[in-house]
Specification:
- This protein is about 55% helix and about 5% strand.
- It is an all-alpha fold.
- It folds into 2 domains: about 170 residues, Tetracycline Repressor, domain 2 (Orthogonal Bundle), CATH 1.10.357; about 70 residues, Arc Repressor Mutant, subunit A (Orthogonal Bundle).
- It has a two-stranded antiparallel sheet.
- α1 crosses α7, α5 crosses α6 and α5 packs parallel to α8.
């Protein structure tokens, strides 16, 4: 893709040149030459954030604790994760009660996922989930106060990942470019063989339930609000300013469009490197359009 050079009306001579969209960001923290931010090495903020977003789009209700989980779920005490009040003692690992709590939660999630896949979300009751998981109905509600919580996390990692992408962007890069590049890198991975089965399962469950479709739109609205508030805070924008909300809606519109495309293609049987490349190319075209309109807004100085 060729260079895109745009001058945004109302921003004077403030022009940003956007190279091959998605290519290496010069000076991006933790980004090696030829490596895109968002595709960082394992254990980097970029790769961890991407993994969390992929899990949000693929897996039902990730557990909040770190017990028995991989690095995709932040451990207690990590950035943004409150540490439980203690009595001055440090523990080397979870106690038996925490392990049982985690095992019960995972059993509930697995039972719900199987039932939703077999019968559809709307046709499954919480009592049926409890029976399949081998617990009482009250236990399910203790872990998941609402049934939709078995599909969507109450606080999806996408929000924190988008805000982090904006905060760590280098000088000269717009907020929309940083968040949009992260979206393209993350959602492209939904085409990988490791994610394809989960994407297809989630797509069938969500598209078969009006309730889940409404909840997903609510989540997208919450993510949009979080990104807009971060941009407004950084740019000291007044409460009535249009620009932060316009930028955030554009980025989340790109995310929603790519997510639906990924679902369509996986349901049609596509997966693997070819689908990853297709999603990435489509995302880059969308990001180029987004950049053309927002290139000069919220540049880091």
């Amino acid at each position: 893709m060729g260079n895109v050079v745009a001058e945004v009306p109302g921003y004077g001579d403030d022009v940003e040149e956007v190279g091959d969209v998605g290519s290496a960001r010069a000076g991006a923290p933790g980004t090696a030459p030829g490596e895109r931010a968002g595709d960082g090495p394992a254990g980097s903020p970029e790769s961890d954030g991407t993994a969390q977003v992929v899990e949000f789009a693929v897996r039902t209700a990730a557990a909040p604790e770190s017990v028995g989980r991989g690095t995709d779920v932040p451990a207690e005490g990590a950035a943004g994760v409150p540490r439980k009040a203690g009595r001055g003692r440090t523990r080397s690992g979870p106690n038996k009660r925490e392990v049982r709590h985690q095992q019960t939660r995972e059993a509930i999630v697995d039972a719900a996922a199987a039932l939703f896949s077999e019968r559809g979300f709307d046709a499954v009751s919480v009592q049926q989930i409890a029976q399949r998981a081998g617990v009482v109905e009250k236990t399910v509600f203790n872990h998941f106060p609402v049934k939709e919580g078995l599909v969507f996390e109450a606080d999806p990692p996408m929000g924190a990942a988008l805000v982090a992408a904006v905060r760590r962007r280098p000088a000269g890069e717009s907020a929309a470019a940083a968040a949009g590049s992260f979206v393209v890198a993350a959602v492209s991975q939904l085409g990988s063989p490791a994610a394809a089965d989960g994407v297809a399962e989630m797509a069938r469950v969500i598209r078969g339930s009006r309730t889940l479709q409404v909840r997903e739109r609510e989540i997208l609205g919450t993510l949009t609000d979080a990104l807009a508030e971060e941009i407004a805070l950084e740019t000291h924008s007044p409460a009535a300013a249009l620009e932060p909300w316009l930028a955030a809606h554009a980025v989340l519109g790109l995310y929603a469009a790519m997510l639906e495309l990924a679902r369509d293609r996986v349901l049609a049987g596509a997966s693997g490197p070819e689908l990853v490349a297709e999603l990435r190319a489509t995302g880059r075209r969308g990001l180029a359009l987004l950049q053309f309109g927002l290139a000069g807004y919220a540049k880091r100085r």
